[in-house]
Amino acid sequence: MISHPDQNPVAADAGRPAGAKSGREKIEVLAAVIERSGSYLIAKRPPHKRHGGLWEFPGGKVLAGESPADAIARELHEELGVGVDCVSNPVFSVQDPGSVFVIVFTPVSIVGQPLAIEHSEIRWCSPEDFRGFHFAPGDRRFIREYLGVMI
Hints:
The protein is of the alpha+beta class. The chain has a single domain (27-145), classed as Nucleoside Triphosphate Pyrophosphohydrolase. Helix content is 15%, strand content 30%. The protein has helices at 68-80, 137-145, and strands at residues 27-33, 35-36, 39-44, 55-56, 59-61, 83-87, 92-95, 101-111, 121-125. The strands form two sheets. Strands 1, 5, 6, 7 and 8 form a five-stranded mixed beta sheet that branches. Strands 2, 3, 4 and 9 form a four-stranded antiparallel beta sheet that branches. The radius of gyration is 15 Å and the shape is globular. Mean pLDDT is 85; it is low at 1-16.
């Protein structure tokens, strides 16, 4: 198990997204901010998913009973085939417009070479290169407000 300083309380319905009991509750989605030598790993969402075809920082939902660190390790293994070395404290969060999802951007150090298992494509890009990509709304806001890049 990977430790994280901010643990989620254990919920009764393991396997369901935390907070998924009613349509009004917020569901936490972790976005891994993976940086190597000044470049960030971004991934293109599959066409059949919400914000399909748009680029994002990879990650996924925190399931009931999962800590944020365990959730990000599970998601990055499933989506990219990598392990997680370190999960830092979240740096930014944003409500996904028109949904119950709250996206929590969290710096993560990975082990291994990422593969596009669940995404259409993955790329390593410098923040200046982000201007050439169409990002999901929450990711766009993170890039503008936290990274300071106008896209």
